[in-house]
Amino acid sequence: MENKGKCSHSQCKKFPCEHTVIYSRDNLVKSKKFPCEHTVIYSRDNLVNDHNLTRIREPIERDAKTCGLCDRNRNICWKCSQCDKYICEDCKIIHSKVNLGKEHDLTRIREPIERDELLGLKSVVCNRHRNKICDVFCRTCEELTCTSCQSIYHNHHNLPSVDDIHTEFKIELTKFETHIDLDILSKFEKDEEILNKFDFIHRQKYEEAQRNIKERENFFIGEVKKHTQTLLNELHEKWDLISSDISAQKSKISEIKNDLSYLKNNINESKDSRDIEKMLRDIKSLGHSLSEISKIEIDYIQQSPQRATLHHENYCKILSINPDGQVKTFKDLSPQKPIALHTTVDNSLLIGVINKDSWKNLNKDTKSKQLIIKLSANGEELNEFEYKSFTLKKADGTNKLDIFDFTWRITTNFNEDICIVDLSTSSVKGRIVTLDKDGNLKWVYDGHPSNIPTEHFFLPGDIATTYLGNIIVCDTRNSAIHLLNAQGSIIAYKEKSDLDISYPLSLCFTDSKNLLVGCCRTSEDQNKAIIHCVKLRGL
Questions:
Q1: Is 121 exposed, middle or buried (0-12, 13-18, 19+ CB in 10 A)?
Q2: Helices and strands, counts by H and E, the chain
Q3: Which pLDDT band holds residue 130 (cuts at 50, 70, 90)?
Q4: Do residues 450 and 458 touch, judged by C-beta distance below 8 A?
Q5: d(Cα 221, Cα 218) in Å, to the nearest integer?
Q6: What confidence tens digit (pLDDT) does each residue in 243-295 have?
Q7: How would residue 71 be classed by pLDDT, with cut points 50, 70 and 90?
Q8: In whole angstroms, what is the distance from residue 483 CA to residue 202 CA?
Q9: Which ranges in 103-184 belong to alpha helices (H)?
């Protein structure tokens, strides 16, 4: 059924207008706006070409600009040439009142719109149907989809609208932000506070120790003054290690805080975004990033227990030095001079001593008194092993053996045997003498087996024992390492060609059971000495 009516177009001269045809409601195009009151246009092909249309305003762009000052209002009416910003009507008044903006040139680019129109979410084109816009989000597949895809790929899936999922994503991003503020950031801020306390405590100790050392320096002269300077150097090194460690941890926290700040900025940008895909990507990456950051641990500096270091000084005394640099006399051994020193597993001390008066004429004085003294951790004398003769049975007969000639190094093994580097006072050679814990002779190792040719006599520089009870001896003059079992039989013999170690002089095990080998300076290179780190297996 069709009806004709009167057209109100200014271009229509006929009544009724031949272009004005109102069809039944079933055929009516569902549209909110019409060219005129009675004219209904169904397609572009039916558009009347000779009608005049007047633009009442510029079209609103999908990604319209926001005000360069308030960042909220999209009703842009002005542009400041000096600031190079687009400004809304409200901010134009504020901009003109500010001192810096009074002389700026503002150019009106359009009349203000009565209300600031809100923009919708950013349209996302369907990957499968390029002429369709994604209007729902599939929770099951975690992707945006259009109406055509719903019946094909997303049957019985959870399909909220993009507006609903946008709200949910904003809530989830807000939870991430809250998690950062209340959990992660607060944790590292507490760690930073603890580090600041450590920094303050160690700095106070450093400054106090520095003051004490400098005050004592005024009372010492000569060698004592050199000793003071050595203590200062050691203190500075310790402080540098502590300070650098604290600085490194604080720097780590600073980097973490910068990363968290960066993530928060990303969260805010994502929350304000209309791009659902970007929000989804950000949520996935934020979960991973925050999980990794939460796993980071801050290492605190633990103060090591105070342990006295012992050394011989002034011929007859053993001194103790605590970590603050205070020097005390641990044991006065007069008239004996301490030569070798070893701390046992029970904190007892084994000290090899010689007569003070026979020190300068050691090679000539064959009757000089040689002792190994055992002291408790408090300096109380527990035992004494004196130079004497032993009868040692060998394959070629019974020999009389004098010990000790000159006690150069001492150590013990796991069954408390005392292993001694005993050097000759009459020739350049030495031997390894082993006693049980009561001072009874167990065995003597004189050096190279007969089947190993060597250039020089056996001259042991140092001795060390492994956790299995094996004994390692460095042979300095022959640039070799001897490995013995607990009964004194040789297990292995390694020369310079095997280990590339020249003139080994000292041995020490690290906490990780690696062997440190300190070497002498060679005649070819007098400017440096070398420390080798050797990893042992099965010893």
A1: middle
A2: 7, 27
A3: confident
A4: no
A5: 8
A6: 888 888 888 888 888 888 888 888 888 888 888 888 888 888 888 888 887 87
A7: low
A8: 44
A9: 147-153, 162-179
CA torsion through residues 384, 386, 391, 392, sign: positive
Residues 287-304 as b or e (16 or more Cβ within 10 Å = b): eebbeebeeeebeebeee
Neighbours of 351 (CB within 10 A): 23
CA distance 412 to 481: 18
Evaluate whether 340 touches 352 at the Cβ level (below 8 Å): yes
Question: Token pair of 200, please?
Answer: 């303050």
Report yes or no: 51 and 35 within 8 Å, Cβ to Cβ: yes
Q: H-helix or E-strand containing 206? A: helix 185-217
Per the document, the length of the chain is 539
Q: What are phi and psi of 519, to 5 degrees?
A: -115, 155
Q: Sign (positive/negative) of CA torsion 160, 166, 169, 174?
A: negative
Task: Select, from the ranges 53-57, 198-202, 445-449, the one with the highest average predicted confidence (pLDDT).
Answer: 198-202
Overall pTM surpassing 0.85 (yes/no): no
Q: How many CA atoms lie within 13 A of 378 on its CB side?
A: 2
Which of 353, 448, 441 has its CA nearest to residue 400? 441
Token pair for 236? 């500075």
